[in-house]
Amino acid sequence: MSFSVEPGALERAASRISDASTDARAAKAYIARHTDMPWYGQGLLNEAWPAHQRLVDEMNKRLGHLVELLEQSRDALHRTATHYRHTDARSAGRLDATYPSVDRGEDTMAGEKPPTRYFP
């Protein structure tokens, strides 16, 4: 059994969560734009307006909480991806240090490091 993490997948998930946060903000803005009415325009709705306002307030509160959770989740996924990138690099470095050195002969000029396709 093995365990592996693909940091890029975590970053993609963070991007999707960020999109959801943007959508929740847009929903909150929509509610703010389309649920307010001046008292003189309420007419018969004036009797039901307090219940309507409580509902709008609750929706705004819950959408605000959703935005917070989504942004915290996005940030946590970014931190986790960064952690795994650095952890994997450190682990690879420790593993590489256990291998014996190899004479590369004429592949390098005097004093130069051997070329590698992974690191500059």
Keywords, separated by commas or semicolons:
ESAT-6-like_sf; 120 residues; rod-shaped; mainly alpha
Helix and strand arrangement:
Layout: H1 7-34, H2 49-98
Helix pairs in contact: 1-2
Describe the overall structure.
This protein has a domain at 7-38 and 54-92. It has two helices and no strands. The protein is mainly α and 120 residues long. Helix 1 (7-34) runs antiparallel to helix 2 (49-98). The two termini are 34 Å apart.
Estimate what percentage of residues fall within beta strands.
under 5%
Which percent range fits the helix content? 55-70%
Unreliable spans are none
Note the main sheet.
none
What overall form do the CA principal axes indicate?
Answer: rod-shaped
* Mean pLDDT over all positions: 84
Counting helices, strands and paired strands, the structural category is mainly alpha
- Please give the count of helices: 2
Task: State the total count of DSSP E strands.
Answer: 0
Radius of gyration: 28 Å
For the record, give the distance between the C-alpha atoms at the N and C termini, rounded to a whole number. 34 Å
Helices and strands, in N-to-C order? HH
- Subunit organisation of the chains: single chain
Describe this structure in a few short sentences:
Residues 83-120 are annotated as: Disordered. InterPro entries: ESAT-6-like_sf. The protein has helices at 7-34, 49-98.
